[in-house]
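A quick aside before the break. I want you to see a complete sequence-to-structure record at least once, exactly as it would be stored in a machine-readable document. Don't worry about memorizing anything.
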Amino acid sequence: MKARYWAIVATVVVLSLAVLAVVLPMITRNGHREAVASEIKSNAFETARNIRCYYIKAEIRVTENSETPGCERVDRVEIWSKGPDKYRIDTEITGMENIGIPPTRSTTIQNGRTVASLGQDGTDIYYNCPPFDYFVGQFDRPYEMANELNALIDADLVDVMAEEVVSGEDAYKIEAGKDERTSLGHPDTAKRVVSWVSKENSICLKKEIYEYGELASTIEVIDYRIDEDIPDDIFSIDKRGKRIREERDGGYREIAPEQAEEVCGFTPIYPGYIPEGFHESPTTGWRDPRPSDLPLDLPPEYAPMWYKPFYITYTDSITEISICEAMKYDTHAPEIDSLTVSAEGDTVVLETSLSGGRTAYYEPDTQTLYFLLKDIKVRIRANLPMEELIRIAESMG
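That is the input. The structure line, written in tokens, reads:
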């Protein structure tokens, strides 16, 4: 009996050791991957906090699809970014000749509150652009370094897949993203993004975007420089010899905070919290509707969704926090419609809770947080992690 007992014990020990031999390396690998993921997020935070200006040269390759048969589109871009309000992108698009589109070149420049789009067929210039709205806030930026870094900082999940060399630089191959279980809507396309980020500073060096399992596009950084001085004349807008297609006044006017009630119809609400490094005294202004051919005294039932908004703008050395507030004249509209939040198509909108039982809506693609403060609607946009935008919103009451 004793011999049989010890034989069983020996078998159990051998089996346990065999299981450990398999499981222990897996635990060790998982622990290492979690440590690397934490390192990637930490490096991204440090880089985003300290960056002052940058230059990027990149190629964007779009795979042939049903809309562009026989085409391998290639966008070559050069980007200069300096401070919170200077940005330039030079773009050359090739590979579309099979559908009758010749190679094209264009330049878009933001210099303060002026934005210019210079193309081969003419130039558009927009003056007095509000801090938040279309001309400054949403023109196409194929590579925004702060956005890439903050996407890593915000990520709930960072899966480290491999270590590789990209453009001569040691990099981690990763998948990162938010937990979208709180999303109001999910993209119509099954999208997957694989990125290669620098081991040194977590800057995105390459990105592959897959849709329905097929490679849709690739972004690869050819060269980049951080915090090397960029001359201001890079951002100058020269109209000489250009055919001007359109010149438009965006309607932004700086005003003192005490003028807001008379001009906008309400008393603005200021945040009690602003992240470290931002100037404590913001610039303030409003958007005059008259350049858009709207009167100052529209009846509430005819007022646009964001009519006569007031802007509070905080800046640091590379970015700005733009807070836009407007009266909720559309009293019968559902909250999400009044805030102009849309979770359709490829747009992801995450729903989150604020103090006092309030709800906020966050768009990762535009880094914008929307919410209501009684009869005032608010949207905050900044190249900051989502958690920071929530802290700002929480501090507003």
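Two observations worth writing down. Residues 19-29 have pLDDT under 50 and may be disordered. The chain has two domains: 50-226, 251-394. We'll return to this after the break.
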